[in-house]
Amino acid sequence: MDDTYKTISQPSEETLYKEKGSKFFGYAFPVTSEDEVKQYLEVLRKQHTGAVHFCYAFQIGTEKIYYRANDDGEPSNSAGMPIYGQIQSFGVTNVLVVSVRFFGGVKLGVGGLISAYRTSAQMALEASEILEKTIDLQYKVTFEYKDINKVMRILREKNLQLVSQRMELDCEVVFAVRKKNAPEAMGAFEAVYGISIVEIG
Q1: Can you name the residues that pair with 57 across neighbouring β-strands?
Q2: pTM of the predicted model, to two decimals?
Q3: What are the CA-CA distances from residue 181 to residues 92, 103, 120, 178, 188 (Å)?
Q4: What are the pLDDT digits (tens) for 83-135?
Q5: What is the pLDDT of residues 133-184, one digit of tens each?
Q6: Are 40 and 120 in the same domain?
Q7: What total number of domains does the chain contain?
Q8: CA gap 177, 190 in Å, rounded
Q9: CATH number at residue 38
Q10: Which of 91, 155, 161, 163 would suit a FRET pair with 100, their CA atoms being 20 to 30 Å apart?
């Protein structure tokens, strides 16, 4: 079972690609939502007030993939898709790549634009630290206080990551586990009478 994915650890260094007077500033950001995408784009628009195009692509998700590519006024498919192609070729997800263009007075043509945006995106991803992460699932376990020791023992034995806990008359813990280890962890809890476990995503 493939339960790992590649992403970037932090925003990349700014990169610069020049072509016939045009400048393409490249950036890569780790993102997990479209709101974060919008926030990064706003920051870049304030930073580069004289730029004509803010072209980008992003991909979010590990099993259900959601992506968008935006040409931001460049000819159709000449910017966003070449950028997205680099995201695919680097095999990363939960990432936003932006190329900010300052027009240099010479038109590049569609082929030239595709090449420039692809190179700009490639440079941004090459300037990023790419790391591999595991796909983790989260489960909620509910139980009575008298069973707390049993629950804690399973968490410890199975090396499960405790996310949150609420200890009252009715107790609740949320834990995260690597996807491939999830069935074994679930089975351990299901084997104990009076404990209920549900996946919460």
Answers
A1: 69, 97
A2: 0.80
A3: 23, 52, 39, 5, 11
A4: 999 999 999 999 999 999 999 999 999 999 999 999 999 999 999 999 999 99
A5: 999 999 999 999 889 899 999 999 999 999 999 988 789 999 999 999 999 9
A6: yes
A7: 2
A8: 15
A9: 3.30.230.30
A10: 91
